[in-house]
Structure formats: structure tokens, C-alpha cells
Specification:
With 639 residues, this protein is an alpha+beta fold. It is built from 22 helices and 22 strands.
């Protein structure tokens, strides 16, 4: 690679641009929040240079001429201690002027606004968030007060080079230069307190620590006075191609940090080579923390795909199901064609086989984590449990394994954290119990206080407390765990089976017989807002609740559909009354009147609130409640 720094500037078309607002905020945080992680800038810039080389090698599959003039791809790191500068140069794909403006002046990624709304003045928190985001090119400003970028796209003439420059002051300038060498040079004018990064010994140590796994040689000048020769500092061998026995845990961690642009450690990893009918190598990682864009539909997810060690694409989502989109890693196939595209991947039979194998490998990693490091798995579930639940509904083949991995809050445990497995629930089931009872609510605390589980709690039956938006949909897609059927405590009959004694059944029949008149009167007062009114077998302390049909949509799903602008199917709930409750007994003693109707409607509306539904007319409810309170106050004053 010839020296790239001999460029001829042209100032005629030099323009000044303002950074995107989010970039200005990110630069400010870079400068003020990452002082304790300064050295990561070198890893980020070398990773970007490696990506540029990868992209050129891929482009050269279709256009070999792009590589012809300089076929040996490499990265050079040069420091000038006297001038206080540091340059990182690649001979990769390079950028046009338009790409320099777009790539270096904006963050073209979904979810950016949400990311920045999560930032605060807390330096430690900001650092962690930036680590999730991936600092990339902007990390240069941690150590530099001025950054220059010189670039020319492969295949374009020398006169099409671009010069980009900024001092992180909210603006950047861009102009055209003559640049003989393709690729990109990032030149850092180091801050006085960062001059250590112009020391060749310090740089060599950092390259070996952070970039030893880069598949291209990272070269520096040979040690000695004014040496013109360059030598490789790193091993320059793709990590996943090396035997596992030769790779240290630290090297695996560093590769993850390069791959995920995250300076935290992964929870676990799996490195595997498959040989035989199909051949591929995979290196998969479980992150320790969810990225900010995990729930962004159009965010890039997937594995880094190589074919016979040639980089193909960054986010090949076809190799893992969407519920494992948090997994980071590399897959290197020996069977796929080099010119494979996203469209071809959809049709390639090899892909489905690899996908099945990689999915099983990730689930095996999680199962191992459950058995050997349960505390780590608890942290994983807190970050990614809601995503993993998608698989229970989507992946029937792996559903038994996924059900074993699920965690719940439950009435057995005093806390509201999801720590109970279905296997633990099954072990604690009462003799004769054939149902796994659960309840959904806005929060675990709300589920714990739900009127629907009062009688179950009274009988000592454990209930799973589900409080995430996805839960109602997921539970609607599954039927049983190891032969035990799931039962929503807020739907239909409780189906206690042999758990209900003969005395319980007799008492319920007597209550029903004695309350027939009251049930009809309440139904007439409420009208067609409910399908029917019946005696409750699930309430112990509350006066009333609304029960759904077995196949009706719950309050949570109704809210989701309504928010998405979808039409919500019509359905009417059943009002259940606790006929032993003092309020219901008082209601039974009233004659048919406006007061009876008011109190009946109030019970219905209270049950709506307890269910988690929104009142049809909140103002009317408040007025009705106030009228009854006024009557009660007046009666007390009179006595």
C-alpha cells in the first residue's frame, strides 16, 4: 500500500455543514463521559477499517479490477510524536463525497431519538448507553480535538478524493482532493492529555489487546529510528478459523467487543465447526445487556456472514429466528456461493439447515447457563426474557426447550421478579391439580392483588403473575407444559376439578339457588353491557369481577389492537358476584329503584377497573360514586 497522505487539496468546492442534532449530543458525551475508556477509540477505528476492507473484498467478487492495483488488503497505524498526530489507514472500499457527508455527519439508524431520550447527566449511565449504541467513528473525539478524514472510493479516479474535517464544534467541512490511493485515512490531532496514543509502544500493546483477531494485518513501522518498513502487529487471522484450544477467554471477549461495539463482556459464547454433509463454522455470543434498538422493527439484526472466509454481509438475519435477534456472532459457510444475496438466502436449502443447527446451539447455551450459572441467567432473563417469549409462540419445534427457559413471578414468591420456572411450579402442584393457573395484569404487583386469584390463593394454589404486554398473546398460543394445561384465572370457569370438595360444590349450588332473583335484577339494571350475571367461585374478598369467555380478547390485547388502529372484535363479559360480600348483601336488601341501579352499575364499573379496562364514561362513574358518597354522608349525619 503506497502512502495515502500525498493529496492535492481543492478549496473551490469546500463546504461547511452542521452535524445532525443527535451527533452533536453524542460528540459532547464522547468528550465528557468516556474519559475512563479512552483507548476504545483505537479498537473502533481499526474495526471500521477492517469493515471497509471486507466490503472491498466482497465487491471485488463481481469486479476483480477493484483490487487489481493493490491486491493486499491491510491496515496501517502511524504515529508522529513530534506533531502529536495518529493516522489509521485502510486500502478498502473508500467513500465518495456524498457518503462522507452522510456517514460522518449523521447517525443513519432507527431509534436514535429514543436512544438519546434515555441519556442523562450521569456519566456512568451515559457510558453504558454509549457502549450499547456503538461509538464507531465518533470515538476519535475522545482523544482528538481535530479529526481529518481523507478517502477515495475504489474504482473512481484520483481526482474524486474527499477531505472531511471537524473539531467537534457542531460543524464539519468537506472538500474534494486528489488522492492517488483508494481507501480511507483517519488522522487524529491528539489532545495534549492524550499524547500517550502517539507512543508506538503504547499503540502496539493496544492493537495486540483489542485488535489481534482482525482478519487483516494491522501494520506499524518497524521499531528503530526513521524505519520505512512496516510489520504486522496482530496475528491477522480470523479468530473463528483458529482451533478453540488455541484461543483464550480474553481473546473471545475482545472479539465480541469488536463484533458488537460493546465494551462490556458477553454472558457466554459457543464456538463450533460442523463437518460432513454441510460445512460451516459458527461463533455465537449472548450479550450481557439489551441494545437500545432491540424493539425497533427496522433495526439491523443478524449474524455476520462469511463464505469461505470472504465477508458477505453484516446482518444476515436468515440464520436465526427473530426471537434470537439479540445474539451476536459470525457464521462462515463452505457451501454457500460467494455471490449469495439476501434474496438467494431466503431460497437456499442450506440456510434452513444451518439455521436449525444455530438455533439449537443458542438454546443449548441458555440451558447450560440455567444449570451452571443461574444468577447469570436471571440477569439474561431480565434483559431478554420478553424477546425469548416470542419463540414460545413462533417456534413449535423448540417449544419444549423454550418453556423450560421461561421465568415468572408467582404467588409462591414474595417478590415481583420473574424467578419461578414451570418445572418448579409443577413440582409444587397440589395432589389432584391438573392446571397451571396464571393471571395477566399491568404489573406483577397488580396481578398479585387481582381479585381473580383470591379463591385460588385461599386454597394455597400457586398462580403465575404475568405482567408484560406480550404475555397475553404468548399464553394464547400455547396449551400445556408436560401434560399440565394452562388456565387463565380470569376466563371461563376455574376448573378446579378434584380440588373442589363436595361441600364446596353444595355451598355453591345453594348460593346459586338463593341468589337467582338478585342475579336477574342486577342483569336488568346493567342491561346489555354484560352477557350474564352469575355467582362467583373465584372471589373471596372482592364483591364483583368481570370474567372473559375462553376465546375472548383480554384487556391488554384490546389496548394493543386499538393503539394499532385495528378493529377490536365485539364481546361481552360475564359479571360474577361474591354473594357473601357485605356490599352485595346490602344490594340484595334494596328494592328495585334508582339507587339499586346506581349501585349495580358501580359494581360493574369497579369490576371493569379491576380487570384493567378503561371505563366507557369515566365522568359518569365519578358522578355516580359522588352521589352515593353524599347519600352515605347524609345518612351518617342523620344518625
Amino acid at each position: 500500500m503506497s502512502s495515502p497522505d500525498h493529496v492535492t487539496p481543492s478549496t473551490a468546492d469546500r463546504q461547511t455543514h452542521g452535524f445532525q442534532a443527535e451527533v452533536r449530543e453524542l460528540l459532547k458525551l464522547m468528550i465528557h463521559s468516556l474519559y475512563s475508556h479512552r483507548e476504545i477509540f483505537l479498537r473502533e477505528l481499526i474495526s471500521n477499517a477492517s469493515d471497509a476492507n471486507d466490503r472491498l473484498r466482497f465487491a471485488a467478487i463481481g469486479e476483480p479490477a477493484l483490487l487489481a492495483s493493490d491486491p493486499e488488503l491491510e491496515i496501517r497505524v502511524e504515529a508522529d510524536q513530534a506533531a502529536g498526530t495518529l493516522s489509521i489507514t485502510d486500502n478498502g472500499i473508500g467513500m465518495t463525497r456524498e457518503e462522507a457527508v452522510a456517514n460522518l455527519g449523521t447517525i443513519a439508524r432507527s431509534g436514535t431519538a429514543e436512544f438519546f431520550r434515555g441519556l442523562s447527566g450521569d456519566q456512568q449511565k451515559d457510558s453504558q448507553l454509549i457502549g450499547q449504541f456503538g461509538v464507531g467513528f465518533y470515538s476519535a473525539f475522545i482523544v482528538a480535538d481535530r479529526v481529518e478524514v481523507l478517502s477515495r472510493q475504489a474504482g473512481l479516479p484520483a481526482e474524486s478524493g474527499v477531505h472531511w474535517e471537524s473539531s467537534a464544534d457542531g460543524e464539519f467541512t468537506v472538500g474534494t482532493v486528489t488522492r492517488p490511493q483508494r481507501g480511507t485515512t483517519v488522522k487524529l490531532h491528539l489532545k495534549p492529555e492524550a499524547k500517550e496514543f502517539a507512543d508506538p509502544f503504547r499503540l502496539r500493546a493496544l492493537i495486540r489487546r483489542y485488535s489481534d483477531h482482525i482478519a487483516f494485518p494491522v501494520r506499524m513501522r518497524k521499531e528503530g529510528e526513521a524505519s520505512l518498513e512496516f510489520e504486522a502487529v496482530n496475528q491477522a487471522k480470523a479468530l473463528w478459523t483458529r482451533p478453540r484450544a488455541e484461543i483464550t477467554d480474553e481473546e473471545y471477549r475482545q472479539f465480541y467487543q469488536h463484533l458488537a461495539h460493546d465494551f462490556t463482556d458477553p454472558l457466554a459464547w459457543s464456538h463450533n465447526r460442523v463437518e460432513g454433509k454441510r460445512e460451516y463454522t459458527s461463533l455465537l455470543y449472548l450479550p450481557g445487556r439489551a441494545p437500545f434498538d432491540l424493539w425497533q422493527r427496522d433495526a439491523a439484526h443478524g449474524l455476520k456472514l462469511y463464505v469461505r472466509r470472504v465477508f458477505i454481509m453484516d446482518d444476515a438475519e436468515q440464520f436465526l429466528p427473530t426471537y434470537l435477534r439479540f445474539v451476536k456472532g459470525v457464521v462462515d459457510s463452505s457451501d454457500l456461493p460467494l455471490n449469495v444475496s439476501r434474496e438467494l438466502l431466503q431460497q437456499e436449502p442450506e440456510v434452513e439447515a444451518i439455521r436449525s443447527g444455530l438455533t439449537k446451539r443458542v438454546l443449548d447455551m441458555l440451558t447450560k447457563l440455567v444449570k451452571e450459572e443461574p444468577e447469570k441467567y436471571a440477569g439474561f432473563w431480565k434483559e431478554f426474557g420478553a424477546v425469548l417469549k416470542e419463540g414460545v409462540a413462533q417456534d413449535a419445534a423448540n417449544r419444549p426447550t423454550l418453556l423450560q427457559l421461561m421465568r415468572f413471578a408467582s404467588t409462591h414468591d414474595a417478590g415481583n421478579e420473574p424467578v419461578v420456572s414451570l418445572a418448579q411450579y409443577a413440582e409444587r402442584m397440589k395432589p389432584g391439580q391438573d392446571k397451571i393457573y396464571y393471571i395477566t395484569a399491568e404489573s406483577a404487583a397488580a396481578a398479585r392483588a387481582s381479585p381473580y386469584i383470591e379463591r385460588l390463593a385461599q386454597r394455597g394454589l400457586e398462580v403465575l403473575l404475568l405482567s408484560e404486554r406480550i404475555d397475553e398473546w404468548v399464553m394464547g398460543q400455547i396449551d400445556a407444559f408436560e401434560g399440565k394445561h394452562f388456565k387463565d384465572a380470569a376466563r371461563g370457569d376455574l376448573e378446579l376439578g378434584t380440588l373442589e370438595s363436595e361441600a364446596d360444590r353444595k355451598r355453591h349450588d345453594e348460593e346459586l339457588k338463593e341468589s337467582k332473583g338478585l342475579l336477574k335484577r342486577v342483569k336488568d339494571a346493567i342491561g346489555d353491557r354484560v352477557l350474564e350475571v352469575r355467582v362467583s367461585s373465584r372471589l373471596a374478598d372482592s364483591p364483583a369481577c368481570l370474567v372473559l369467555g375462553e376465546h375472548d380478547l383480554g384487556a391488554g390485547m384490546r389496548k394493543i389492537l386499538a393503539a394499532a388502529g385495528q378493529q377490536v372484535p365485539e364481546s361481552k363479559p360475564i359479571l360474577e358476584l361474591n354473594v357473601g360480600h357485605p356490599l352485595v348483601k346490602h344490594l340484595e336488601g334494596l328494592a328495585d329503584s334508582e339507587r339499586f341501579k346506581e349501585l349495580s352499575l358501580l359494581l360493574f364499573e369497579q369490576a371493569e377497573l379491576a380487570e384493567g379496562s378503561q371505563l366507557g364514561n369515566p365522568a359518569e362513574f365519578v358522578q355516580r360514586l359522588n352521589r352515593l358518597l353524599v347519600e352515605l354522608t347524609a345518612a351518617q349525619s342523620a344518625s
